Amino acid sequence: MSFRSSRSPLALAAALAIGVGLAGAAAAQTATGSTGTGTTATEGAGGDRHQMMFKRIDADQNGSVSQQEMETWRSKAVFRLDADADGKVTKEELDQHIAQRQAEGGQAPDSEKFFSTYDANGDGAIDEEELKSGGSQRFQTADTDANGELSMEEWTALQGS
């Protein structure tokens, strides 16, 4: 399955790094919601960047992020990095993205941490099921009040993990 929309870079996680994890590399998107590569002056502080990402992921704008919203965002963010459109993101594809982000002066996720979190079968590639499973575990851990939604406070704590 392919989620390709463009070849422009997207920072995975804050969240990915979202721990991403992941939920982060995408955290470096610009205020316009583009797949820009750097932070703006107003999002330079970690809190501002986390708030902006939270608002982008909160699709229904209800002030919290559901697991479905997180899964949708994470899948789009990660699979934009799938350069060969094989339905998997390899460490090489992520490392290429990281190198590009760093060359442009942007923040980049820790690929080792990302792969240790999501590559359950250890094959060096992350597929949709691994992404969903790893993300679900991270979401459940972050949802400290167990209400099925992440508040801004829970989201911010997740980004630091």
Question: What strand line-up does the widest sheet have?
Answer: 1-2
Contiguous helical run count:
6
Strand content: 5-15%
Terminal Cα separation, in Å? 30 Å
Radius of gyration: 14 Å
Number of domains: 1
**Roughly what is the average pLDDT, rounded to an integer?**
74
Main sheet properties: 2 strands, antiparallel
Query: Which segments are poorly predicted (pLDDT under 50) over 5 or more consecutive residues?
Result: 1-45
H/E topology pattern: EEHEHEHHEHEH
Q: State the share of residues found in helices, binned by percent.
A: 40-55%
How many beta-strand runs? 6
- Helical/strand content category: alpha+beta
Name the shape in a single word: globular
Outline the structure in words.
- With 161 residues, the chain is an alpha+beta fold.
- It has one domain (12-159).
- The chain has 6 helices and 6 strands.
- The protein has helices at residues 46-57, 67-79, 91-103, 111-118, 128-142, 152-159; strands at residues 12-16, 22-25, 65-66, 88-90, 125-127, 149-150.
- A two-stranded antiparallel sheet has the order 1-2. The protein has a two-stranded antiparallel sheet with strand order 3-6. A two-stranded antiparallel ribbon has the order 4-5.
- Helix 2 packs across helix 5.
- The longest helix has 15 residues, at 128-142.
- The protein starts with 11 loop residues before the first strand and ends with a helix.
- Residues 1-45 have low confidence and may be disordered.
